[in-house]
Amino acid sequence: MGDEFRTTLELAAPASQSVDRELTVEVGWVLAGAFDEVDRRALALARARLAELVTAWFPGFCWRFPVVWRRELRATSPVEPVELLEAATDERDHGRWDFVLVVTAAALKSHYKPFALGAPSSALDAAVLSTQRLDPIVEDEQVEESERIEIIARRVTALAMHLLGHLNGLSHQDDPVDFMYDLKTAADLDRMHRLRDRERMEKALREVAAERLEETLAYRRPGLARKWGARLGFGLRVLGREWRNIWEAVREVEPWLFPLRFSRLTTAAFSAVLFLLLTAEVWELGMSQPPLRVALLALLILAITSLYVLQRQHLLRRHRWEVRFSEQRTVAGMAASMAVVLGMATTFVVIFCAVLLVSRLLFTFRLIAGWADLAPTWQHYLTFAGFVATLALVAGALGASFEQEVYFRHVLLIDEET
């Protein structure tokens, strides 16, 4: 990244006299690509209004809104949100910000909806928003320039507040005037002007504004992050401090929907199941295994396949612990790892139940007794289902490795398409 592509500005929200200077919240803005004069003026106005809004609502914090303009991030429309988010997190780490909002004039690619205005990622403490559908000339070409600027600024302010609410754990509201309303169109943003869950957001902000672990004296020593013992200790301390935030990020991902969202994983797993169910030797081998051995094998395969998927999809490649500690990146890595493990475990449970159901309904007692050379009991059926599900999970992991990396990361890192 050359210096000619990077412009940094600073905006500090006016703070009241009662502000605790230790409770500083920095929300960095990354402007990605090119913007016309109308967009630039509207974004400057939106930042100022957002600063006034949060300062009035949360006067106990010192707010800062630095801006970085990344002109080289010119993407063809539509652009993958996760690609912009990952570029923005580099700026977040560089500036030591608490949150980062990346703004683009390009349309965002949506995988679940007809279109997306924004996309938050609680795992990354980042969100992306697009100004393309916020411009009123999309619907009415007769709008004056001053009115365009006003409408875009109002909508960007509302959308930024909505995304910040998501990053601080707020849920959707049914009230269309609330900033956390589950909006459907850009016009919905025009009605938003209040925030119901201010107390909940303030509580979350106090945790965010607290000193991060890497800022403590224990982890400031140069070169400490290169030591395995220190990295392990740092990770364990982050887990102890941030387990609620990690779980919240995992919950937003909904890993229990893995079998539905990743078709290649599911197809590969159930193709293996069909083959295994029709093989007599598999029935004999599976039903002859001790239940404890099958259980231990299933746990081992779950760990191996989860690690394999994480490596193949490069979900940990952005973590640069060997350079310096980062609590935010550690939380993101733990959340992604936990989501993959839970997703693969869900796939195992689905396969296990399917094998158990099919084996009981379609395969007769006489047929199984002939194949397995024993009188099958419920324990044999359960053992066989676990054995087949374990083998099918390996096939599923191979299938998951062929999922498009950008889509896999989209599912793992983005909470929703707003």
Would you spell out the secondary-structure blueprint of this structure?
Blueprint: E1 6-9, E2 24-32, H1 37-57, E3 62-64, E4 67-70, H2 81-95, E5 99-104, E6 118-121, E7 126-130, H3 145-167, H4 198-209, H5 228-253, H6 258-261, H7 263-277, H8 280-287, H9 291-312, H10 327-362, H11 365-372, H12 378-400, H13 405-413
Parallel strand pairs: 2-3, 2-4, 2-5, 5-7
Antiparallel strand pairs: 1-4, 6-7
Helix pairs in contact: 1-3, 5-10, 7-10, 7-12, 8-12, 9-10, 9-12, 10-12
Q: Which features would summarize this protein structure in a list?
A:
2 domains, transmembrane
Provide an overview of this structure.
By secondary structure, the protein is of the alpha/beta class. It folds into two domains: 3-208, Collagenase (Catalytic Domain); 225-413, no CATH class. The protein has 13 helices and seven strands. Strands 1, 2, 3, 4, 5, 6 and 7 form a seven-stranded mixed beta sheet that branches. Helix 8 packs across helix 12 (378-400). The longest helix has 36 residues, at 327-362. It is elongated. 41% of the residues are buried. Mean pLDDT is 83; it is low at 1-8, 15-21 and 318-322. The chain crosses the membrane at residues 292-310, 331-358, 378-400. InterPro entries: MetalloPept_cat_dom_sf. One of its GO terms (molecular function) is metallopeptidase activity. Keywords: Membrane, Transmembrane, Transmembrane helix.
